[in-house]
Write a structure and sequence with these properties.
Number of helices: 12
Strand order of the largest sheet: 3-4-5-6-7-8-9-10
Number of domains: 1
CATH topology: TIM Barrel
CATH class: Alpha Beta
CATH superfamily: Aldolase class I
Shape: globular
CATH architecture: Alpha-Beta Barrel
Helix content: 25-40%
Bound molecules: 1,3-dihydroxyacetonephosphate
Radius of gyration: 18 Å
Largest sheet: 8 strands, parallel, barrel
Mean pLDDT: 90
Structural class: alpha/beta
């Protein structure tokens, strides 16, 4: 069974045209080209290799029953699925999930190439074990490990330099939400973290809007409200690049996504996938999320 491209049915219907190398393409066409992408961020879980491999095996068995996944180039009719296991488990998890067309990514890299940086992992290292994606700017890295926008920007560029794809996480804290400055925070993070990234490289960049107050709290952002922020992020991309980049960049939502909330989120015009934490640790929940309706 192939998953339907949910976005085909829910694009904005805008009629403006933009010019690309092959000639003009409508905004509707560009947004319809955004392949859904579901990602499972395992964070610092599970606690042993055996448990990690069990989770990967269980997920694959269910995913196989429910849906086809596929590599990014094969855009027609499938959802891209990426898992972010902890570093020690990446290779073995890749061996298991790769057979189902699921890719793996790294939760973090350091921006230096190599050297005396005890405890750090370089982009070349995760690339060499088969990572295709790297999370950059996750709020837990920003808050707990002092990841600044300058450092995040260096990481994004390093990931691209090594031929991988960054998933850039942005989003407001509870205090910023209460102050009503969600847009300002997202605009600032997107513009600083993507500074110097070329238009050409933007085809490999995924953005994840993750309101910090929704992460791990069970407080999923209302689909409409999340969609408004996604639309706003596209206006930021349009200013930084152009309408083509704005409409073709994939933007995920993250924060307490569950099987119960995924369908509503994915029905939105500007939500192209989800970045899932807690629910990705349950094979049945994550398989259902990947098989959103
Ligand atoms: P939860 O799904 O547990 O809220 O985590 C979201 C997240 O941080 C994904 O990166």
């Amino acid at each position: 069974m192939k998953l339907p491209l949910a976005l085909l049915a829910t694009t904005s219907g805008a009629s403006a045209f933009t010019t690309v190398n092959n000639g003009p393409r409508s905004i509707t066409e560009l947004s319809a080209s955004r392949q859904p992408i579901m990602a499972g961020n395992w964070k610092m879980n599970p606690t042993t290799e055996a448990d990690a491999l069990n989770l990967a095996n269980g997920f694959c068995a269910l995913l196989n029953e429910m849906a086809d996944t596929c590599a990014m180039d094969d855009v027609e009719g499938c959802t891209e699925v990426v898992l972010f296991p902890p570093f020690p488990f990446i290779s073995k998890v890749k061996d298991i999930v790769g057979k189902e067309g699921v890719t793996v990514g790294s939760q973090q890299v350091y921006y230096e190439d190599k050297g005396a940086f005890t405890g750090s992992v370089a982009a070349s290292m995760v690339k060499s074990v088969g990572c295709e994606y790297v999370l950059c700017g996750h709020s837990e890295r920003r808050a707990l490990f002092s990841d600044s926008d300058v450092n995040i920007n260096s990481k994004v560029k390093k990931v691209l330099e090594f031929g991988m794809k960054p998933i850039l996480c942005v989003g407001e804290t509870q205090d910023e939400y209460d102050l009503g400055i969600t847009q300002e925070v997202c605009a600032m993070q997107v513009s600083k973290d993507l500074a110097g990234v070329s238009k050409k490289d933007m085809k490999d960049v995924v953005i994840a809007y993750e309101p910090v107050w929704a992460i791990g709290t069970g407080l999923v952002c209302e689909a409409d409200a999340a969609n408004k922020v996604h639309k706003f992020i596209r206006t930021v991309l349009a200013k930084m690049y152009d309408e083509e980049v704005a409409q073709s960049t994939r933007i995920q939502y993250g924060g307490s996504v569950t099987p119960e909330s995924v369908d509503g989120l994915m029905a939105m015009s500007d939500i192209d996938g989800c970045l899932v934490g807690g629910a990705s640790l349950f094979s049945d929940k994550f398989a259902r999320i990947c098989n959103f309706q």
